[in-house]
Specification:
Layout (H helix, E strand, L loop, with lengths): L2 H25 L6 E5 L6 E6 L10 H14 L6
Antiparallel strand pairs: 1-2
Length: 80
């Protein structure tokens, strides 16, 4: 994978996944911060989130994204 492919994908995720969430979050009173987790193998989106400090002041974009990622993992059935 070329660096330009990675850069293109990151910009696409920001525009199509993080930004819409952030716009809604700002409208609800949060600050402008968001994050996403991508699969290394194919750069597919695993999860995107945004700042959620109106619910908890510690949930900045990156922290809230990690929280939601681990919540989603807990709900999945472990592989046997």
């Amino acid at each position: 994978m070329k660096n330009s492919d990675l850069a293109d994908r990151l910009l696409t995720v920001i525009e199509t996944d993080i930004l819409p969430l952030t716009e809604k979050g700002v409208a609800a009173g949060n600050k402008v911060f968001g994050a996403a987790i991508l699969r290394k193998s194919d750069l597919s989106l695993v999860i995107a989130e945004t700042n959620n400090e109106t619910e908890n002041p510690l949930w900045h974009g990156e922290v809230h994204t990690l929280k939601r990622f681990y919540e989603a993992r807990k709900s999945r059935t472990p592989k046997t």
